[in-house]
Amino acid sequence: MHIEPGLVDGAKIFLSYVTAAGAGAYALQRGWITLREQGVASFAGRAIASTALVFSFFEILPHFPVGVSEVHLILGSTLFLIFGVAPAAFGLALGLLLQGLLFAPFDLPQYGMNLTTLLVPLFALEALARRIIPSGMAYVDLSYGQVLSLSLAYQGGIVAWVAFWALYGQGLTSANLAAISTFGGAYLLVVLIEPLVDLLVLGSAKAIRGLKGSKWVTPRLHSAA
């Protein structure tokens, strides 16, 4: 997943450093809370697993350029439901960084924009989850409607941020608006697929009894808040 090089350049790119710093600071805060509540080993294990999965999503799963960016099956809601918000955030940040360092160095100048685009929707998803998931419900018992809402929140947030960067960098030209619309329309495919993946993963987690209480998954996966 990347914002196309040159979409935002010059002095304008400074804004991406500010937004990424804010998103990173919040991720660190949530990480510290998770460390205190669940321990270093649990947090580190989930963050490493999340990083490996994110890197795999970027490099192995199908992805194709559309309009102003690329369409990826990032599975942000899946990472959140399995690992929790902080490990998922660290996984997204580190997986994206590894991709840039190892395979796409031309993406590194856009790292701040890409990081913001991935993390802020994740934090919005977390806020939505608090509202629509009862405190007495474990994630493995979520309905299709609930996981669809989470997926829409995450993927919609990605589209909104990509649109913002495109408008910020290139303005309200007809070509730019057309490219943004094409990108947003293509992302509907992800919204259709991701909730089904979530339900499949949650169903598998529910069936595997050994995962309950495991340090490799968020406690909320099998237990009430």
TrEMBL record:
The chain crosses the membrane at residues 7-28, 40-61, 73-99, 111-129, 150-168, 180-202. Coiled coil: none annotated. It is a multi-pass membrane protein. This is Cobalt transporter. InterPro entries: CbiM/NikMN. Keywords: Cell membrane, Membrane, Transmembrane, Transmembrane helix, Transport. Its main location: membrane. It is found in: Cell membrane.
